[in-house]
Each structure stands twice: as C-alpha cells, then as structure tokens.
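Hi R.,

As promised on Friday, here is the backbone we talked about, encoded as structure tokens. Could you run it through your design pipeline when you get a chance and send me back a sequence?
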C-alpha cells in the first residue's frame, strides 16, 4: 500500500486524540493490506487519512508519534518476519494527476541540482513485494517486504511463481526485487482449485496471491506470477541505468514488466511520462493482470544516487495512482441491513458485474443521506467501482437511462428488524434499542461455547425466549426460573430445570469469558483474555482511561477509544450482570499467585526472566478445542502464536498436525506431544509443581 505525504490540500486534525486515532486506523488498514486479508479501507480513504496525518504533523509537530505512517515503511503494517533485508525495502510516495507529477519532477531536479536525464514508466502491480536472493545463479531465499527492515521466508512457496527462475542464465550472485501476483488466468484457476477443495473462493487477486505465498499446508498449489522491478548487488562500476539493469536480469531469465504487454517505456520529459501513463491507463484492462497505477523512476544511476532516499521512500521514484475501475450494471433493489449494534445501512443489490477480476453482486450505499445525494433507484443503470480496488460502492446513476415510472427509495420509518424507533441524529442511523434490537444475535454470541458456554441455549430456545419477551439482553437470562420456562414449547420440568442450572452455573465463568460474550467491537477471545489479565476485574477495566487501555498489548489509540466507548454503552448491561452475581474477576491460578513471591518459581511457560515463551499449538490436544488450547498456553504463562519461526520457543504437536510440526523439526524447536501438554495443564491446575517440573524437563532444554 503506497502512501502520499502531501498535506497541501488536507485539513489538519483538531485534536491530538483524533490524530492518534487516525494513525491507528492507517496502521490497522496497512496490517490488513500486508497480511493479505480482506481489506476494510479503500485506497482513497487511506490516502486521505495519510494526508491529514501529515498536515497535522506539520501544524503540530509535537503531536507526532514514533509509529506515524509518515515515519515508517508501509505504515507499520507489514507482517514482520525474522529475516533481515540486505538494504531496506522502501515504499513509494504517490501522486494522482499530471500536476503532481510535474511537482515531483521539479523537486527531483532541485535535489540533484540538474534536470533528470530521463525516466522509466512501469505498471504498478497490486501484489506482494518480495526479495529473491541468488547465489552463484541459484535461487537460495525469498523474503517478503515485512516492515521494510525484515520479512518472512517464503522460499518454498515462491519457487512456484512463473517468472522467478530457480537458476539464472549465468552463475552470478545478486538480489532481485519485485512483485508476486496473480494474473487473471492465475486467479480463475486458483478459484477453481480452491472451491474444488470445498473452500470459499478468493475475494481478490491480491489477497489470493498473498495468502498463497504464505500457505504451507494447502492441499492444492495455486499458480503465481512474478515481475522484477529492481536488482541489487550489481557491479557499481557498471553504472547501469534502471532500464539497463532490468534488461540484464531479463537476459538472465527473470520476468520483468518490460517483457509484458505493459512494457517499460523510456521518457525524456515529464510530458512524455504523462502520455505514457495515459496510454497504460487506456490499455490496463487488456493486459491480463491487475494494474492500479504506474511507477515513474529516474532512469540514470547517477540521478538516483544523487537523489537518495528518505527513511521511508526513495526521492527518485513516485507512484501515480489510477482512478478506481468503474463499471455499469443494473441496481436490482435496495435493501436495509441492521448491524449487531443497531446501525442501519442501505445496501445496493446488483446484477452481477466483473470489476478488477472480482464478481460484484452488492455494494455499499454508505448512509441514507448519501443515498439521496447519489440519487440512485431500483432499476437504474448505475456506476459501480471498487474503491481502491477493494470495497464496491455505487457512485451514481445514468439518469438519462432511468426507467419510466421509477420511484425514489423510501427509507424505513422504524427499525426493519424490531420495528423500534430510529435515531437519525447522525449520518449513520441507529435503532434506539441498540444491541437489544439484535437480541437474538447478541444472546447467541454470549451463550456460545467460546464465551459463557451455556449448554442447552441453542438458536431455537433463544428465539422462543426473545419472541416471548422474556429476554432482551444477556443479564435477563439470570432472571429465568423453571416456572417461567415451563410454558414454552417443548419445555418441561426436567429440561427447564437443566437449563436454569446451566445458566446459573455460567456465573462462575472467568471474567475473560464474560468480556468475550459481551462482544465489544475490535475485541475477540484473545483480546478479551489480555484485557482481563491486565485489569483483573471489571471495576478496574471500567475505571481505565484510554491511555490505561493502550498499556495492553495490541491496543492502539483507535482500539482503545472504541473499547472505552463500548464499555460506556454496555455499562447498564454490565451493572445488571454484576447485580445478578455474574463473576467479574479473572481468577489467579496457584502458579501466578506464587509468582508474586520473589522466591517462587515462574509460570511453567515463562522464561527465567518472567517473560512469556512463544508457543504454537498444532493438531488436536486431548480434551481441548483449538481455542481452549491457545487459552491453556496463556494460563501456563506463555504467549500463543499461530505460526512457527526461529523465535518460537515450543511447539505442541497433536493428532492431525501439519507442516508446522515439520517446520519445528527443521528449525530445531523443542516439541511437546499434545498428551504431555494436557498432563502439564492438569498438573499446573492441581498445583503439583513436582509433576510440572518433570513434564517440562521432558520437552524443554533446561537453562544453563
């Protein structure tokens, strides 16, 4: 995700809190982008936030935080690995029009003290940046960009990429950098393979490429492609231009954009660059691979050397972002969705249309004010774009093609889900009942196995309780008794008695389970456990400031603000739960209590200095679900992780374990059988320190 730091037309944030929240939003978006997951923020929003952050830092430099995206590569969002890069893999600043290109070129000329000797223009491919190392002509290691300083080793998977040869045409030692991506043909075949194995189709070629590059245990091998955009390790005395360096690696057998339909034209002036970019934009839908912009570079080695780089981006290159790919289709109807927190949103249901390689059947209409402003109706031929090639949105309609007799959409006057009143005081309408509107969903989440684990409260029973008006929030469950439940369908004395007993028994669940069940936005099971362990009690959590919340691992400014706001909104329910005797304290186990004594031994999975070991659980652990296995790691003082690396301290291997066990063996990481891990957990729970020590000695090397 390239960024721009041009605050000229951006408004600074009014408060420090708004600034820090924006930084966290950008970092979260970048983490999604670099991890290859489904993206939640389009490029336009991302770039606008970056510009406002930069403008704020210019106006109030004392607010600047170390993790600002203007100071870090990739907004700090790269999935950081443990393989350092030989030289940093930097991002590119970007521009959006010819005027921006001319200004960049003028800055470059001033920096080097002369007119640049010429430029190259390459397609900006939305894939995953990698660095491929060749020794004596043989491909030895492939590393992702990561945070720009270090990345993940993906050599095994990257070897499948077409265009990245296993051996070069000459026995040279060098490093090729470029983009791993999926062509349109790759993407179609990858989805055939994926759906053929019973998995949902990939959402987008970029996330498909990123996920495939990191997948080590899939039953199928999805295709990948590669284009180089830089080479390191060449003889500096050769003073090769960028075009010359690319021609050299192409002669060695490496694929470059110069050999593709996009080409890599050389331009003497910025006007020629603009013409080349316009030509690329005109042809980009016919290339067979996704292009969302162009990359312009100073071609001369001397110009690049003299221009240098900032800590985040080279001064000799710039990315030109194309407008979002826009298509037309028919708007079949407008539906209204109600979220779990009561937010009411209009959604366009569309005749399926292909946009940037993805079939789009629905698109956001944002809010009801925006729906009026865009003036779209059912039956219209509408313009649809995937903003930033990610989120489908309807931007308007072909009014001259509007069908006769079409009617404007009539917004709901009451909540479509519960028929309650609607709060229209803000752009995003909300049911005044809030979470109570989605009582069924919130109750199902609260009572689920990974939350309060109340056996017998399935969807049918919850539906009966809600329709009978007996329950509107989780606290109401604890008011139920046998006499109240007996009249319900299929509910007799015995079944009602069991259900009441199970509900009452859930009061003793740990605080972390209560937090999970409440479903605070931007939290999940792991974050709920972290919050519970950090604050220990609900009272302490409710009293925490936004700064206090940020002391918890993984809680940044935006998440802290969201959690604080959610706690305020949920306070009435929390008070009701407390009044009904639901536990609001995280238990302190015997080992943790003993650890308070300076002479006591640390938790079983803690290092001698008290810091948690990193533990990966792969395969089945007897008596535990996958989430319970990770929870057990944390109860034992460790830190659960989903991937094996050189930084992993221990891997628990159970039945059905896959490549993680093999990787642990290859890296020489200690392995503990799942049965022994289950015994360790039992011994720890019982306070049997001798048994704990014996079990650890069987799997972990003793400290010197």
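Update: got your reply. Pasting your designed sequence below so it's all in one thread:
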């Amino acid at each position: 995700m390239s960024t721009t730091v041009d605050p000229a037309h951006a408004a600074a944030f009014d408060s420090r809190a708004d600034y820090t929240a924006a930084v966290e939003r950008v970092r979260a978006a970048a983490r999604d982008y670099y991890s290859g997951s489904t993206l939640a923020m389009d490029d336009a929003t991302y770039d606008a936030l970056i510009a406002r952050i930069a403008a704020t830092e210019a106006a109030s430099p004392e607010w600047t935080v170390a993790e600002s995206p203007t100071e870090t590569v990739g907004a700090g969002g790269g999935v950081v690995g443990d393989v350092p890069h030989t030289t940093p893999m930097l991002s590119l600043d970007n521009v959006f029009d010819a005027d921006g290109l001319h200004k960049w070129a003028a800055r470059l000329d001033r920096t080097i003290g002369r007119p640049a000797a010429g430029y190259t223009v390459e397609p900006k491919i939305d894939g995953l940046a990698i660095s491929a190392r060749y020794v004596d002509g043989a491909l030895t290691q492939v590393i992702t960009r990561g945070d720009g300083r270090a990345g993940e080793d993906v050599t095994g998977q990257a070897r499948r990429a077409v265009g990245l040869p296993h051996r070069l045409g000459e026995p040279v030692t060098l490093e090729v950098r470029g983009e791993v991506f999926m062509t349109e043909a790759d993407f179609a075949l990858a989805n055939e393979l994926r759906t053929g194995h019973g998995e949902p189709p990939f959402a987008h070629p970029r996330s498909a490429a990123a996920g495939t590059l990191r997948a080590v245990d899939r039953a199928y091998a999805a295709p990948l492609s590669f284009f180089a955009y830089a080479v390191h390790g060449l003889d500096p005395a050769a003073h090769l231009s960028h075009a010359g360096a690319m021609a050299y690696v192409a002669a060695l057998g490496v694929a470059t954009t110069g050999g593709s339909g996009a080409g890599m034209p050389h331009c003497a002036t910025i006007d020629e660059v603009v013409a080349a970019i316009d030509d690329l934009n005109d042809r980009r839908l016919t290339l067979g691979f996704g292009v969302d912009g162009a990359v312009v570079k100073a071609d001369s080695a001397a110009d690049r050397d003299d221009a240098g780089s900032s800590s985040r981006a080279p001064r000799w290159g710039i990315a030109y972002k194309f407008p979002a790919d826009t298509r037309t289709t028919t708007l079949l109807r407008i539906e209204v969705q109600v979220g779990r927190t009561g937010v009411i949103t209009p959604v366009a249901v569309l005749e399926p249309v292909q946009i940037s390689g993805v079939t789009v059947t629905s698109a956001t209409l944002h809010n009801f004010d925006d729906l009026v402003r865009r003036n779209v109706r059912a039956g219209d031929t509408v313009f649809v774009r995937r903003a930033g090639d990610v989120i489908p949105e309807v931007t308007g309609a072909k009014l001259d093609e509007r069908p006769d007799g079409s009617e404007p959409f009539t917004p709901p006057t009451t909540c479509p889900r519960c028929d309650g009143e609607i709060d229209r005081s803000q752009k995003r309408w909300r049911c005044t009942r809030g979470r109570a509107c989605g009582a069924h969903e919130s109750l199902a989440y609260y009572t689920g196995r990974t939350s309060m684990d109340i056996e017998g409260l399935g969807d049918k029973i919850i539906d009966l309780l809600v329709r009978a008006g007996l329950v509107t929030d989780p606290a109401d469950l604890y008011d139920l008794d046998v006499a109240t439940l007996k009249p319900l369908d299929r509910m007799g004395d015995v079944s009602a008695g069991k259900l009441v007993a199970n509900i009452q028994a859930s009061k003793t669940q740990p605080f972390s389970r209560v937090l999970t069940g409440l479903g605070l936005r931007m939290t999940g099971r792991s974050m709920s456990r972290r919050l519970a362990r950090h604050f220990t009690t609900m009272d302490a959590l409710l009293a925490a400031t936004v700064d206090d919340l940020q002391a918890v691992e993984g809680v940044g400014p935006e998440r802290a603000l969201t959690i604080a706001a959610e706690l305020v909104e949920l306070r009435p329910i929390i008070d009701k739960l407390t009044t009904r005797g639901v536990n609001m304290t995280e238990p302190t186990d015997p080992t943790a209590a003993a650890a308070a004594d300076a002479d006591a031994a640390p938790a079983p999975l803690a290092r001698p200095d008290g810091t948690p070991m990193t533990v990966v659980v792969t395969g089945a652990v007897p008596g535990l679900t996958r989430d319970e296995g990770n929870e057990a790691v944390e109860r034992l003082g460790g830190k659960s992780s989903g991937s094996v690396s050189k930084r992993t301290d221990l891997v628990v291997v159970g039945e059905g374990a896959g490549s993680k066990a093999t990787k642990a063996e290859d890296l020489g990481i200690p392995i503990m059988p799942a049965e022994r891990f289950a015994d360790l957990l039992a011994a720890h729970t019982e306070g049997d320190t001798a048994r704990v020590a014996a079990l650890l000695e069987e799997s972990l090397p003793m400290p010197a």
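One thing I noticed while checking it: The first strand starts at residue 83 and ends at 84.

Thanks again,
M.
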